[in-house]
Structures are given as C-alpha cells and as structure tokens.
Specification:
Blueprint lengths: L1 H19 L43 E11 L4 E11 L6 E7 L25 H8 L9 E7 L7 E4 L2 E10 L4 E11 L3 H4 L4 E5 L4 E6 L5 E2 L2 E2 L3 E2 L15 E10 L3 E4 L2 E2 L2 H4 L2 H10 L7 E4 L1 H7 L7 E11 L4 E4 L3 E9 L2 E9 L6 H20 L7 E6 L4 E4 L2 E4 L11 H16 L15 H22 L1 H4 L16 H4 L19 H20 L2 H15 L6 H10 L6 H9 L7 E11 L4 H10 L3 H4 L4 E4 L10 E2 L2 E2 L4 H10 L2 H5 L6 E8 L8 E7 L4 E6 L10 E8 L3 E6 L14 E2 L7 H11 L1
Parallel strand pairs: 1-13, 20-21, 21-23
Antiparallel strand pairs: 1-2, 2-7, 3-6, 3-10, 4-7, 5-6, 8-9, 9-18, 11-12, 13-17, 14-18, 15-17, 16-19, 19-20, 22-23, 24-25, 24-28, 26-27, 28-31, 29-30, 29-32, 32-33
Helix pairs in contact: 7-8, 7-9, 8-9, 9-12, 13-14
C-alpha cells in the first residue's frame, strides 16, 4: 500500500505545483499540435460512396464511356483523321446538364497557353532541341480540328472549347441511369515527339526516310464525373496526366499496308493483316513460355523500310473495360511475342522495336514485360488483360492500357552502357506496371500524380530487385539491381534540399518544382520504408493487396488508399501520412548525449530540488530507488551483483527479499551499468528510432523503438539502458533505413570526419 501512496504523492505534488505556478509564467493555450493526431481535419467525411474503412461504399458509382472509332493515319503528311461515336451512361444519382470532353492535343495548338505558364528567366543550360523549338521555330500547328459534333440522329450539338476542354450542350439533361450517344469528327497534325517531348507522335529516321508512330491522347475523350470532383475538367497543362472513365472500345485503324501495328485490345481480323508466315509464328508464340518468338524479323523489317506501299490496311480491335486507347505503327518494327501463364489464362508479352533498338531490345524487352506482369500480379491481382506491349520510342516513357512507349537505344554500332541497359529495363518495368496503377486501379492523375507514379515506382522498385534475383547474370557484377528510386538513401538529397523548391506530395502535379522526386521518388521511398521498417512485409503486403483488389476497375482517392492501409493492417498510420505526404518535413534523428548512473537509496540532485519545491522529506517518499548520475570523480559502477542489489540500494534488496521467491531472485537480471541515452530530432518527421548499441566485449544489440516514442516530446526523448556490459558505442539508423538527411549526428562517440588528406589517400588506394 505504501508504494501506491508514494505514486499518488507524486501525482498530487505535480498538481499542486501546476496550481502554484505564477499565472504570468503560463504559456498561452494552443490547438492540438501533435504529429500523432488523427487526420480528421485533412480527410473528407466518410459517406455512402466511400466508407471509413477505405472501401467503396454501398452507393459507389462510376460512369461508362463506350467508343466506336474509325481512324486513318496519313503517313505522307503525318496527320491523323478520326470519326468516333461515344455512348455515355450516366450511373451517377445526378442529372447532367452538359458533358465535358477532353481535347488534350490542344496543349500543342498554336494558341495554347501551356508554353506561357512557366517563368524562370534564362536557364543555366538547355537541351538543343528545346532551345530550337522555343526560340528558332514557328509554333507547331497542332491541336484538334473539330469538323462536327452530332447527336445520334445526325443533328448538330452546340459545343464550347476552352483550351483542352470541350463542353457539349445537350438538348435536355441526361437523367440518372440514362444513356446518350453522340459523334465527333476530327483531325490534327501529328507532332515529332523527339522535338518537343510530346507524349505521343512520331520519330523520323532520316537514313531511311521512315517514321515510327506512337499515338495516344489522339481522340476526344470523356472526362470523369465522380462523387469527389463532379466533372474533373481541370485543364491539361502538360504535367497533370489523365482522369478517364472505363468503357468498351471498337476501333478500326487504317494505315499503309506495309506497316506493322499493335494497339490496346484484341485484334479481330488477324488473318486479314498477317501473312501466313506471321500466323504460323503467332501460333508458335502462344505456346512459347520461356522465350519470345519473332513475328516479324529484323531482316524483314529492314526490307520493308526500303519501300513505301501506296496501299492501305485496316486493323480492327476490340477492348473491354479499359480507360483509354493507344496504338503504334511503322514499317520499321520488328515484332516478338511470348506467352505468360496467368492462373488458367495465357497473356501475351509483346515488343515492337526498330533495328535501332537492337541488340538490346531483342535481349531484354519482352523478358522485362514478362517479369513485370508476374511481379506486379503477385503483389496486387492477376493481370486481367490479354496482352502487354512494349514499344521502342526515343526518349519516351509513357503508358496506356496494354501498351506503352519506352526509351533505351544502343549506339549505332550496337554497343551500350550499363546505364542504357538498366534505364531501358527500368522504364519498361515502370510503364508496363502502369497497367496496374492507374489503368486498372484508376486514380485521378490530373489531381494526384503520386497515386499512379508513386505507387508504380514503389512497385517498380520491388520488381527491379526481384529481376536482379531472378536474372543475376543480367546485373553482374552488381550484387543487386541498381534501382534509381525507392531506396531510402536515394531521396535524401531531395528531402534535405531547399525548402523553397519542395512541395508536399499531396500537391497537384502542375504546382510542384521537382515532379520526379515529388511524385515518383518520395512516395515510392515512403512506401518502401513503410513496408520494410514501419509495418513489416506481412502486414504491408496484405494491406496493399487489399487496396489494389478493392479498387481495381474503380476510381480511388488518396484517402481510400490511406484508410485501407490502416483498416487492413491495424496499424495507426495517420502520423506517417501526415508527415510524408502532407508536409515537407524530413527525417533527422541523432544522439544528443549519454549519462551514466548507479543505483542508490538517496535522492539524487534533481529529486532533492523537486522535494525542496514541495516541502517534502525522504520520510514522505520512502521507500524509493534512485539512479544517481556519476560525477567526474566517481569510480567504477557498483551496479548489482550476486543476484541482489548492492548495499547502495537497501530498499531494492528489501523489496526483493520480501516479494520474490528464491527461484525468482536466482533468475533476476544483473545489470552492472545504467545509461540514460538522449536522442534528439532536428527533423520534423517522427520515425521509428532504430538503434545499434555496441559493448566493450564487441557485441551489439539492436533495438527499434516505435515511432510513438516521439508522441509526447517531438524534440527529444531519453531512454534508460540497463546492461551487464559497458556501453562503448551508439549508432542511430545503422542500415540507413529511414532516409535520415544528416548522419553526422547519428553516432556516439561522434565519429570524426575524415580529413581531405585522408580522403585523397583512400581515393588513391581505391584506384
């Protein structure tokens, strides 16, 4: 009972002390400033469309946009013509007064405001092509030419074009549950994507006079209408990508007869556009699971590029439940395919590339496609589409359902560096991986660029590491795949950089300074740390897969992701989302100081001051045990020995004799040393406190204190370490797991920085 009394006395004394404070000394009150408070202020209120668990609610809906298109590619004039009929189904509970259609090609119209949106003055240096395009060329005459917009009966529908958006005014509101069909006829001049880095266009090969086309955002596309945004009709300025509804497509594409073409969807008239030899090879490819089969060989592609056919062929495709459509076409393409087993289905992994891509592409492209489909499927859901296509295109990295453009070109003599090889493999993994995010888990890229780029870059990192494990010969002499992003150390320069040029991840992609680190690198690193260090793989992987499966073929928001990750893991992560995603805080945790203590019955200095302030005596508080800090003149710690406290702590000895059995006393620990280790946190991000303690005998002990250790003091925390061995070293984050931006404060004793002379000697020795 006396122990409870002592504890109560401390509590009571604290209350008295608070009441005795001078009113003038009190700090003003404040709102909840804890970095561990819940995200109620940031999150929207759950509703019947989106539940508090992060799952779709019972009233969740999404619109349907189905397309029938006839497309013709004019290779002579680098122009594209199209007629499309859109059937739009209003599954929302709202009656729609008008429809919004995206005209993304208008970003390259002569009247586009996009080139005028960025200031900045004279750059330090500039790419020659960009310089010539800006200052030495007439603006490209791009953008849609709209011939007409008509209803199902052929009557004209009024429309208004506002930059990259077109509002179609319908005669009467489209009621909930109703459909409307309308047609648009259009054309535009195709840009050279190697000049202005367009996401879509052609590359001209001067040596043989041919073009290779990668065509996307090429047709007027329905905007998304949702419970979150209403119409997502934010203009396309160039960085924020696309928000699109799902639908079914029937597309006929007419191109020169000697072109090789592939596209989103399943080819419906293969026998009409394939030769007998190509059909035979295609049948073989459907049974080849270990290596690709050439449908069009390099020799055949080189022969085709020497002549230009004046005839035409129409390739017919159907695609179900896709959010977009794209195709690639050229007489220069080599074409290979390989089958991939997905459950009880076969999926075709496909590559299209000109001879300029070899020998790199024939070796690694389809291999990377196959690996990506398997890796991503294992972490999310089984890839649902019939194929995945990788198309070689200079300086490109862009994704669409079932098809993507990828860079990675060897030198003219066929040689290539490791940088080119890894860059090509990585971009293929990344762009093929976009089939999962956002082509299937269909986030709003226009508003939240990180939801597709960040999640995909995280998945890419895992796939790359698995690629290195599966194909060690491809990465030798490296021990692991040299991923560009995802590893905590890779994001340190960005997070420790100039705060005036850093934006939170939760920013619109048009409004950030460094889109690559912001939307790709930082969220990928955050998820990697979450998986490896904060949650652990088992909990993370289950939650991440739950999110992917809940939201495949739907439109999730950031909150749906954040909530699902917590809901499926039972890990409170509000502090993590706030720090990593809503702020520009960074990680910096260090060792502030270490003090050594011994056990005593006598009040230490701090306790004596506390007692004096409250008129307390030792009799009021006894029996208590104290840890007394060593002074400079003190000798070796008496500590504890013979399973009982030394004479310096008689009260502890009495407690053990009175309350513990002989067996319990025999098994008691015998710490000889007591240390108070104080850690500080100059960085704003709370993180797990990962520590390696080293002792005099050379042994080490690793302890990970949970991030909640910072919940009551965001600046510094102290822990008591009781040990039988003398402490000789402390290192915070010894394996660089947390993206700590300053490691000079991570060790005790503080490690001296090597002198310039020492660094020079090491460099010479290394060479």
């Amino acid at each position: 009972m006396k122990y409870y009394f002592a504890a109560f006395l401390f509590f009571f004394a604290g209350m008295v002390f608070a009441q005795e404070q001078d009113v003038n000394e009190r700090e003003p009150g404040h709102y909840n400033q804890s970095k561990f408070k819940q995200l109620y202020e940031e999150f929207a209120t759950p509703n019947t469309y989106r539940s508090a668990s992060g799952a779709p609610g019972p009233d969740y809906y999404q619109q349907q946009a189905d397309y029938k298109m006839d497309i013709e590619l004019d290779d002579t004039n680098a122009k594209i013509f199209g007629e499309e009929t859109i059937t739009y189904t209003n599954n929302s509970p709202d009656n729609l007064e008008y429809l919004w259609v995206q005209l993304d090609q208008n970003v390259r119209a002569k009247t586009s405001k996009s080139p005028l949106r960025d200031g900045g003055g004279v750059p330090l240096a500039e790419d020659p092509a960009a310089f010539a395009s800006k200052y030495m060329s007439e603006p490209f005459d791009g953008g849609f030419v709209i011939d007409y917009v008509r209803d199902a009966n052929g009557r004209s529908l009024p429309y208004t074009i506002n930059q990259t958006m077109m509002r179609i005014d319908i005669p009467q509101p489209l009621k909930s549950g109703d459909q409307i069909s309308f047609s648009i006829k259009w054309n535009y001049n195709i840009p050279d994507h190697t000049v202005n880095r367009a996401r879509s266009g052609y590359e001209f090969f001067a040596k043989d006079g041919n073009r290779a086309y990668v065509i996307a955002q090429f047709f007027p596309r329905m905007a998304v209408y949702s419970d979150v945004e209403g119409w997502q009709n934010h203009q396309f300025w160039g960085s924020g990508e696309f928000a699109l509804p799902f639908g079914d497509y029937e597309v006929n594409i007419t191109v020169p007869a000697d072109h090789v073409l592939d596209a989103t969807g399943e080819l419906q008239n293969r026998k009409d556009v394939f030769t007998k030899k190509m059909m035979s090879r295609y049948e073989a490819a459907k049974k080849s699971y270990d290596k690709p089969v050439l449908i069009v060989t390099q020799e055949e592609a080189e022969a085709a590029e020497k002549n230009v056919s004046t005839k035409k062929k129409t390739w017919k495709f159907k695609a179900e439940n896709v959010r977009d459509y794209a195709f690639a076409s050229s007489r220069k393409f080599i074409w290979d395919m390989q089958a991939v087993k997905m459950g009880n289905r076969d999926v075709m992994a496909v590559s299209l590339y000109p001879k300029e891509g070899n020998p790199l592409w024939e070796e690694y492209s389809t291999k990377a496609v196959v690996h990506t489909l398997k890796s991503y499927s294992s972490h999310t859901f089984e890839y649902p589409y019939p194929k995945a296509i990788s198309v070689h295109a200079k300086n490109q990295g862009m994704e669409y359902p079932m098809i993507c453009w990828n860079y990675g070109r060897p030198n003219e003599d066929g040689t290539y560096s490791d940088r080119v090889k890894y860059g090509m493999i990585s971009v293929i993994i990344h762009e093929v991986g976009h089939n999962f995010f956002p082509m299937i888990v269909n986030s709003d890229e226009r508003q939240w660029g990180w939801m597709d780029e960040g999640l995909d870059t995280f998945m890419q990192y895992m796939a790359e590491q698995e690629f290195g494990e599966k194909y060690p010969e491809a990465i030798a002499p490296n021990d692991k795949y040299p991923s560009r992003r995802g590893d905590p150390s890779k994001i340190v320069p960005y997070m420790g950089g100039d705060q005036s040029t850093i934006a939170p991840i939760m920013s619109n992609p048009e409004n950030v300074y460094q889109l690559g680190p912001n939307a790709y690198g930082k969220p990928a690193t955050a998820l990697n740390i979450l998986r490896e260090t904060v949650m652990g793989r088992e909990l993370f992987d289950h939650a991440f897969k739950t999110y992917a499966q809940r939201w495949k073929f739907k439109h999730p928001t950031p909150e749906d992701f954040f909530r699902t990750m917590e809901d499926a893991s039972s890990v409170d992560l509000d502090w993590y989302w706030r720090g990593w995603f809503y702020t520009t805080d960074y990680v910096d945790i260090g060792v502030k100081g270490i003090k050594k203590y011994y056990v005593s019955d006598k009040p230490n200095k701090k306790m004596q001051e506390y007692m004096a302030a409250r008129n307390l005596t030792e009799a009021d508080l006894r029996p208590l045990v104290y840890l007394e800090e060593y002074g400079d003149g003190d000798i070796v710690a008496p500590g504890l020995k013979d399973n009982l406290p030394s004479e310096t702590s008689q009260t502890l000895k009495e407690f053990m004799m009175d309350n513990m059995t002989a067996e319990e006393r025999a098994n008691v620990k015998q710490p000889k040393y007591f240390y108070e280790v104080t850690y500080d946190k100059p960085g704003g991000l709370p993180m797990p406190l990962i520590v390696e303690y080293t002792y005099a005998d050379g042994s080490t002990e690793n302890i990970t204190y949970p991030p909640e250790i910072w919940r009551k003091n965001d600046k510094e925390v102290s822990v008591v370490l009781a040990s039988q061995k003398e402490l000789t070293g402390v290192v915070v984050d010894p394996k660089a797991e947390t993206a700590d931006i300053d490691v000079t404060n991570n060790a005790w004793p503080k490690k001296e920085e090597p002198s310039d002379f020492d660094k020079m000697k090491e460099n010479i020795k290394g060479k």
